[in-house]
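[Solved] Which block belongs to which protein?

Original post:
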Amino acid sequence: MDIPPPQVLKQPLKVPQKTLMGPGPSNCSPRVMNAISQPILGHMHPEIFKIMDDIKEGVRYVFQTTNPLTLVVSTSGHGGMEAVLCNLLEPGDVALITVNGIWGERAASMAARYGACVVTIETEPGNNFTLAQLENAVSKHRPRLLFVTQGESSSGVYQNVEGIGDVCHRYGCLLAVDTVASLGGVPLLADRWGVDAIYTGSQKVLGAPAGLAPISFSPRAQRRIFERKTPVKVLYWDMTVLGDYWNCFGRPRVYHHTISSQLLYGLREGLAMIAEEGLDNVMKRHQACAERFYRGLEKLELEPFVEDVHKRLPTVTSIKVPNNVDWRDVVTYAMKTYSVEISGGLGPTANQVFRVGLMGYNATLTNVDLVLEVLQEALDFARTRRRSKL
């Protein structure tokens, strides 16, 4: 052989144990970790089909929908965004995108790549949109699709979705909602609120490893997909094919791609744990953790980036970086000293905030107290380091 075996692969794999208190992924429970260690099965085995059917029921529960076209895409939550926009937009369609952080920016970029005429409605990071603002924009631009991010994890903002579906449908518009960082932490009633396309990621409140994106389309959106004048641009995202693999249309299952059995096991168990706890209790747990964290921040004399408590996302809290510290010193100290992840800002909040995630298995009062203690010590270290440089 021209190229020898790499020396690094002759060393044993070493994976450290870390407490992931950033905006995602979060740690998985022992039950989920045990599930993903089970034997590999083939992607067309009947046992896998049964697990996929179990997952569909769990996804319908967490989305609060009865949509037949409900399934999971083998991708991160980011790929769920791609799948929604790729299926629902054709060249020349008007797409109205709400932008108050990085995920609206990404959605606008994706929609443009699929040939849509993109219109954005924007507000500053740390703020959300009123129903009147959204209705004014929909009535003015008459879009084919309105895209809203329920939980903007780059800034920690919560967007209330209730009422937006009614506005959209009055003007013949579809409503797509990103719930990657919000699902399970705040109310979401897809059917009752008229959400036409919804997706999330497996690695946050759902408590599974990253790599799967639950997604669901309303009958209205499903008709839109099947009545397209042009084929879906990317075969991998095409719901008319993937839906058959997931048995959404009552037709024989057909091969679409080789799905990871291990990731399915983990998601199945994460959804089972949510079903056992109950969605209402899951949301109460996340809200209780967020409120305890807010009180702790006040004692540390730290300011939440989102001033209005009603606009705060309980699953991801953004915190203003004090003037007398370098945020890198804080996150580096937390990781090196305690193996606790605290993240910096992202996109429009880069260098401005810390972001702390309280999601899924990690959403406990014990973890809240841990991250507050680590944050205080890390801030003291960063302040001392700053003074020593002056």
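(Second protein starts here: sequence line, then its structure tokens.)
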Amino acid sequence: MFARNCTAVRPYLKYFVLLKCFHIENMANSRYEYVKSYETHDTLQKNCWIVIRVDGKGFSKFCDVHKFTKPNDERGLNLMSLAAITVMQEFNEIILAYGQSDEYSFVFRRDACIYDRRRDKLISCVGSLFTSAYTFNWSYLFMDASSPKYPPTFDARAVLYPTDQNIRDYLSWRQADVHINNLYNTTFWNLVESGISNSEAEKRLRGTLSSDKNEILFQEFNINYNNELAMFRKGTILLRKQINLRSGKCISCIAPYFEDLISNSFWEQHPELLDKTRKGISPRMLT
């Protein structure tokens, strides 16, 4: 009986579908649709490098609440990199990401056309994906807690750089910032751990040069700053690389590097970053 009924109504199904589509279209094209005309789209200038930088909001408090190790928490830095890798996997027009402390910069190719280069779309998608990936991977590194005590927040901004030298200078600026801040923080927290107050440590370091801080670390704490982890001193660079396996296969991956971005040698070693016609081939052979 059911089969016979289905057969009977089958000729009318197409009319039902058309009627339904007509109804939906009328709903979409309602008298309220005019409000879409108020939307504006800021399109980023073509032929410029796009940098989307995400930065932790109120992260000093966040780190205190979650008892991050000072001056550097290796778990926290690796969690930032895991979140950044997630973003790079989603957006294949990112050629490089650079992270330090609670920030990550994502460099999109000059000819990137993702979302038609709409600023608001890029900022919101990169920022939200990074934040969700940071929270999603929390338990993987912080095994003593399945989730953070409260949601972390990252803001995001987009900046354009018209020349290759500009983008190199931007990355050099961020890496120089790592050196200045990390040397200060390493010295500051060693002084605090030695028994003096935060204000006393701040007063001790006021007006000191890099050489002075290195001297304090070496003379008073037997610490050679150059022996600190490169990730702490130089930040983390994420690059897309082709890896040759011993089996003869070649695979793509996102690899971390802890190198000097300021010198020419980095850009000579990775020429594909500024020349999209060249592919990055790692000399390492993996089993």
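Accepted answer:
You had them paired correctly. Confirming on the second one: The chain has ten helices and seven strands.
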